[in-house]
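Final report, Chapter 2: Outcomes

The project's central promise was a pipeline that accepts a single protein chain and returns its three-dimensional structure in a standardized token representation, suitable for archiving and comparison. That pipeline is now operational. To close this chapter, we reproduce one record exactly as it appears in the project archive, with the input sequence first and the structure output second.
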Amino acid sequence: MGVSTSRPGAPPGGRGIALVTVDFPPVNALPVQGWYDLADAVRDAGRDPGIRCVVLAAAGRGFNAGVDIKEMQRTEGHAALIGANRGCYEAFAAVYDCEVPVVAAVAGYCLGGGIGLVGNADAIVASDDATFGLPELDRGALGAATHLARLVPPHLMRTLYYTSRTVTSQELRRHGSVWDVVPRAQVRDAALALAGEIAAKDGSLIRLAKAAINGIDPVDVRRSYRFEQGFTFEANLSGIADRHRDAFMGRRGDPGPVGADPGPGPHAGTKAPENTAPTETRPPPVPPAVPPSTPPKEPR
């Protein structure tokens, strides 16, 4: 249990690959320390001169279910909330800033904080049963629209965000954000095969290429996400977030349409599954560097 790093040797993985695996049963809802451990593992792998590509994978039935709500609700004060917020920020940034390309191997659900990870990855390989979504509004939080916007077109991003629907790996492949869709049992091998192709390139050039591509991004993902976090902070100060988290955990009555099923839509998605991923992302942060009244300048 926790975050581990290994080096696959023979093909299809090839040499020069670090495999970072997340394992937090039962649903891979990460505690505060888990986000920091993940950030450290990805950064350490990228700094290793012998590594030319990182594969980010998860054990268990889903890739990532976001933040551990139980940890936040049982901790007095805001320490766990702020810790999880900062941990998410660090983990997402570590994937984006990793000195070498990061391939996300997604099997099963990828919700909340999982979107922050894969949205910042360089490539995604997903299982044919994988689903992606942000159940934030149903969990009393906001955030990671920055990263969802890197996976789908703008209006679809807004619809998914406002409805808490999920989208399938097949649809993301049609949008060009998922490289390949394979049966669940083949996800890791397929991700390692892609990583092997990347790792076969000159290591110095791969690092220069990663820095160059990050440098031409039209949106500063760190600043944009930090801006979003300010609204999560506001939701927590107002008490809205606690009401929704408590309702989700079954502590109080339903404050509204938290678990309502909006019905089928034109895109292949449903509500984030209540029974598979009892978590959210982005708990309340420290106020962002950019106040909510001043939107980011970068074009969307």
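Archive annotation: Confidence is low (pLDDT under 50) at residues 251-270, 272-300.
This record, like all others produced under the grant, will remain available to the consortium after the project formally closes.
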